[in-house]
Amino acid sequence: MKKISDWTIQNKLILVIAPLVIIPLILLAYFATSQLNSALKTGAEKDLDHVVNTIHALCEISLSLENGKSFIPSAQISKIREVVKGIIIGETGYPFVIDRKGNLIIHPTKEKENIFYSQDSKGNYFIKEMVEKAISSGAKNTKEIRYPWVNVELGEKSPRMKITRFRYLSQLGWVIAAGSYEDEIFGAVGRTQKVVFILTIFSLTIVLSLVVFFARFLTEPILELTHLSSRMAEGEFSLRVGIPQHDEIGQLALSFNRMAAQIQEHTKNLECLVNQRTQELLESKEKYKGISTLLTNILESSTEYAIIATDLQWKVLEFNTGARKIFGWEKEDILGEYLYKTYVEKKESFIEWEEFKKLQAGNALEKEVIRKKKNGEVFLSRAVITAMRDMEGDLIGYLEISRDITERKRLEWELIETKDYLENILDSSADGIITTNQKGMITYVNRGLEEILQDKKERLIGSHVSLCYLDGIAEARKIMNILRRDQKFTNYEMTMIDRSGREIPINTSAALLKNFKGEIIGTVGIFKDMTEKKRLEATLRKAEASLIQSAKMRELGDLVAGVAHEINNPLMASQTIIFRLKEDYQQQKNCSHKKIIEFVDLIGRCNDRIATIVNHLREFSRETEMKFEALDIRIPLNNSLLITGQMLLDHHVEVTRDFSGDLPKVMGSAPQLEQVFLNIISNARDALDMQHSDKELIIRSFYRAKNGTPGEIIISFTDTGPGIPPEIKYKIFDPFFSTKAVGSGTGLGLSLCYGIVEKHAGRIEVDSEIGKGATFRVILPAISSNLNLNKEDKNDKEDISS
Amino acid sequence: MTKKILVVDDDELVLIALEALLSPSGYEVTTANNGDDALEKLNKKKFDLMILDILMPGMNGFELCEKIRTLDEYKAVPIIMLTAKSGSEDKKKGMEMGANLFLPKPIAPQHLIDLIKKSLE
């Protein structure tokens, strides 16, 4: 259904004018018809009343009174009957008179019949109704009944409405009535109505036609204009309106035609221009298509860089692959959104006023700033923002190129941290560290070196490293030669010199510095200041010597008992012999010469024995010197057993000796090695003392060949004691570690042994299992693998005896 | 009747010296340089007195003394322990094992002779 506003002007006119004309016309027709109708109807009723009243009056006049009773004489009745019968109302209407009992007094055809109970076509007793109504209403007024009636006499089949007006004649009890068919009465009315209706329709048709024509007349030129203008809009500029009027529409048509002519002219020009421009455009389009594709490719293939274009309100216009990847926004989601959504700051502050002004002034804005991804994750971005301008130089938006530098920043920090960390490590080293370039120029020194040379980094860096060496360039060359050959070295002893000329003993380790490609870029050296160490070493050597001495004295104390026994035997023997000799001599007994010689020899042997022991004791207690000489290991071994033999016996320790007779010599100090053996033996004795039986000590010495070296001499001491618990095994060489009761051992024994053996370039090993005893092995390097057969030591297998 | 004395010591010098001391004094001296040797010799002869060293390889003086005392004929024979060990502990132990005398080395020869003589009475 179209809205009224969309109707054509013609229809709108019809809509307005038609009711204005039609409604009064219809109202007029209606009014006229109803007036006519009512007039006619009233007229017909009055006609009937008039007939009734006339007959009524006629009867009243004819009334005669006899015996107080009213009556109409028969002659009079006949005359009245004649008059009444002569009245015809309409076509078939007639008057009649009936008494109150229904007997027809006067009737055109049914005189003297009783019709009281006759029925109309609906079955009503209409006569009865009429009579009752007449009696009840009195004689003064006429009344009316209407009923459908089929006039059989006239051959009618369908009922017609009949109107009967009546009046009561009370003196005689008569009802005077006049009836007629409605259609006969209102026939004129119906005809008039028909005429009025036809006239009305006729008028309506004419009026409507006029209205439509008028509307047409008014809107026709407008319609034409409309039609033409729409065709013109489609490009038919040659069309003109042909309206001969001179009213407003005529003027409009003229203007329209002028305008059309102008448009036609302009369009022609425009078309030429457009064609020309189109041609130009096509050419430039071709020309720039390549560049455009290239730019788009660049924009989209840049995955590392976010490229974002915005308008002046910072609303995103372009969001390339890199931006999508970095910020996590989909292009369609971010387009049209504000750029500050990718910032942590609020809308008002994500670009500072100063920055904004800088942008406006045409400068690029570079900033490292925290940014926000779509999922809220933040990261560090480095962004360059520039203002975008059109050809005229007007600001049209902003362009941001940025990248995620979180990882780079983290690496930078890590690098700085690592550098600081390494420098801290280097600086916290008391040893001096120098790096040089290939020319020997110092490129780095640490704090340690500053302290060693009492100098400043700033002065050292850049100078030649040989300035720090006592032997100068010669030393530098020497070091470089070793490095070229071996790549690196350690424990190189040299001397440095500081600016004041102080000489510093140094232990150096150095290596070639290479870059990640393996190219030599310089050297690194670690310089350990040995001044203090050298001093300490000297002190330590003294302390160690005195320690060994004191330990020896303690051992001596332990040995006194054994040694006393050792001496007491020959002492007693010699005393006894001397007593015997003296006795014999005094008593002049048969004391042969031979016997005396024998006794004196015996005394001599006793003295020798004592002398050996005393000598050895003196030797043992002498201040320990590190006097190394080629040594048969059995000498210190036998000596240690000489001192301890008696003691071991005393402790019921059964000693088995298994010494190879032809061992290579070792380089060493006999008293010191003897000290080692004494210590191990006395520890074995202590261990064996923890049990009551099965006290055995097996001492073996043998040679073991070793590839590429002169081999080793091994002296092993195996006891059958309780063994060393594994948890203390590694501690037994520690100074002051002792398993013995407080006061009975210093705990220095094995640690001294260890030191002594180390000085002999040897080592001590220990094997032990709980419950199965322990084996200590002193391993010393042999001087040569040539086997020496020392024939002087035939006493090897001699048992230890008291 | 000549009294028979057994001297047990692992030191040859001591054995020679004691034999030289005691033989001229009228004793028949037998020497043994270890415990087993001594026990063997005890079986062959009946000795009247024994001088025992303590520190000997193998069987020591205490053990030897204990063993000797188990032999019926030596239950009351005087045993002198002659030793460089002079601690009171050792002396006590020696007495427990059945020694009669516990003498230190060295001892004056005359004194030893006197004590032997006294022991044999």
Describe the protein.
The complex is a heterodimer of chains A (802) and B (121). With 802 residues, chain A is an alpha+beta fold. Chain A has 4 domains: 28-190, PAS domain (Beta-Lactamase), CATH 3.30.450.20; 302-409, PAS domain (Beta-Lactamase, 2-Layer Sandwich), CATH 3.30.450; 429-529, Beta-Lactamase, CATH 3.30.450.20; 539-797, Histidine kinase-like ATPase, C-terminal domain (Heat Shock Protein 90, 2-Layer Sandwich). Chain A contains 18 helices and 24 strands. In chain A, the strands form 6 sheets. A 5-stranded antiparallel sheet of chain A has the order 4-3-7-6-5, with helices on both faces. In chain A, a hairpin with a 5-residue loop joins strand 8 and strand 9. Chain A is elongated. Chain B is an alpha/beta fold and 121 residues long. Chain B has a single domain (3-120), classed as Response regulator (Rossmann fold). Helices cover 43% and strands 21% of the residues of chain B. Chain B has 5 helices and 5 strands. In chain B, helix 3 links the parallel strand 3 (49-52) and strand 4. In chain B, helix 2 packs parallel to helix 3 (61-70). The longest helix of chain B has 12 residues, at 109-120. Classes of the chains: A alpha+beta (802), B alpha/beta (121). Chain A binds chain B through residues 561, 564-565, 568-577, 579-580, 583-584, 589, 599, 602, 605-606, 609, 646, 649-650, 652, 799-802, and chain B through 10-11, 13-14, 16-18, 20-21, 24, 53, 55-57, 60, 84-85, 105-110, 112.
